[in-house]
Each structure stands twice: as structure tokens, then as C-alpha cells.
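Worked example 3 (structure in, sequence out).
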């Protein structure tokens, strides 16, 4: 099993440590457990197998059922089983912000490059799409980077919410701008104030 250990969030014993696995490399025959979980930022919808989270979405602008459908379409050959108990340890670790969690990330070489870069954005910090492009050595690939960020299957843990617009605006988020704002506030990120409409 090929694994890449990566650190997410705070360093040291009080942080969340993320291990990224690319196994299995295919969803054919996979049995994915799924479940919904309450959280301070909204209902979490999780999918996973063999101790690894494959997908994590947040019901903000969508119902939990629509979030599940949105995530599950990424693995059309997997069979879904309603079994939140199997995912509870990973979700509990995420919510406490302490311990180890494994995520399965499989994508193109470019997607993996972007997702790994997301994992290196420290807790409470933000980066612009342009800054992320510079960081991965692809300064002209802004549109492709935006697409890859939006295709991240394991939201919150792979912190795509920490990518904002260059001008200081919060930017879009697959699960809704209110969810992104709640995540950033929870992490103590300094968010530029929203402009006041002209009267």
C-alpha cells in the first residue's frame, strides 16, 4: 500500500495528522460506508472504506441527501452502505482536531499536486489562487488550479476552503460561501471584511 504521510493543521501532539493513501487505485468493487454527522459548521456527509475517508462534504446550500449524491457520483462502481459507525472515529478525530486520520486521494498528476499543496497550508492561514499557482510552480494555470481545488473530494481535511481570491474576497466554495466563512472563522483565519453596498 503506497502512502504519503502529511501533516495538517497544528504541528506537534495537539494537531491533526493526515495520512494520504492512493489505495485502492480503482473504485470497482469497493464498498463505501456513508453517514451523516452533526458539526459546528453544518451536517457532515462522509464516505469511506477500510479506515480511510474517500469523501467528505458539508450540507450548507445542499441537503445531506444531495451532498451524498454529489460525492457518490465520483465513485460510480462502488456500492454504498449506510454505516456511520464505521466512520465515527475519523469524524471524531476531525472534530476534536487531535489525532490521526487517513484520506484516500486518487486523481490526475495535476490534481494530486494541487491537493498536496492544500495540505501544506497551515491552520488559520489563507492563500490566493495565484499564490497557490506560484507555490506549485504553475503560475499560469489559475483556471486549472481553481478546477482542481473545487474537485477536492475530502473537504475540510484537505483544506480547499483556505484558498481565497487575490483581492481579499472569500471566493466561492462548493458547499456554499457560508460554510467556507464558518470554517475559516473556526480556524481563526483573518478574513477581509465584506464590502458595504453603496447606498
Amino acid at each position: 500500500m503506497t502512502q504519503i504521510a502529511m501533516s495538517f493543521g497544528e504541528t506537534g501532539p495537539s494537531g491533526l495528522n493526515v495520512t494520504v493513501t492512493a489505495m485502492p487505485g480503482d473504485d470497482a468493487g469497493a464498498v463505501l460506508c456513508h453517514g451523516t454527522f452533526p458539526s459546528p459548521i453544518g451536517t457532515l456527509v462522509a464516505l469511506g472504506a477500510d479506515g480511510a475517508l474517500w469523501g467528505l462534504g458539508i450540507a450548507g446550500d445542499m441537503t445531506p441527501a444531495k451532498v451524498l449524491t454529489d460525492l457518490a457520483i465520483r465513485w460510480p462502481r462502488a456500492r454504498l452502505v449506510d454505516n456511520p459507525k464505521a466512520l465515527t472515529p475519523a469524524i471524531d478525530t476531525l472534530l476534536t482536531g487531535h489525532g490521526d486520520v487517513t484520506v484516500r486521494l486518487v486523481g490526475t498528476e495535476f490534481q494530486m499536486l494541487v491537493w498536496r499543496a492544500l495540505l501544506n497550508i497551515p491552520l488559520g492561514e489563507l492563500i490566493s489562487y495565484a499564490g497557490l499557482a506560484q507555490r506549485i510552480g504553475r503560475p499560469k494555470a489559475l483556471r486549472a488550479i481553481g478546477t482542481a481545488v473545487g474537485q477536492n473530494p475530502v473537504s475540510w481535511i484537505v483544506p480547499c476552503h483556505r484558498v481565497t481570491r487575490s483581492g481579499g474576497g472569500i471566493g466561492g466554495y462548493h458547499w456554499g460561501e457560508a460554510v467556507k466563512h464558518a470554517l475559516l472563522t473556526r480556524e481563526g483565519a483573518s478574513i477581509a471584511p465584506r464590502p458595504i453596498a453603496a447606498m
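Notes: The beta strands are 3-8, 16-21, 31-37, 43-49, 52-59, 79-82, 99-104, 127-128, 163-164. Residues 109-187 form a domain with the Arc Repressor Mutant, subunit A fold (CATH 1.10.10.10).
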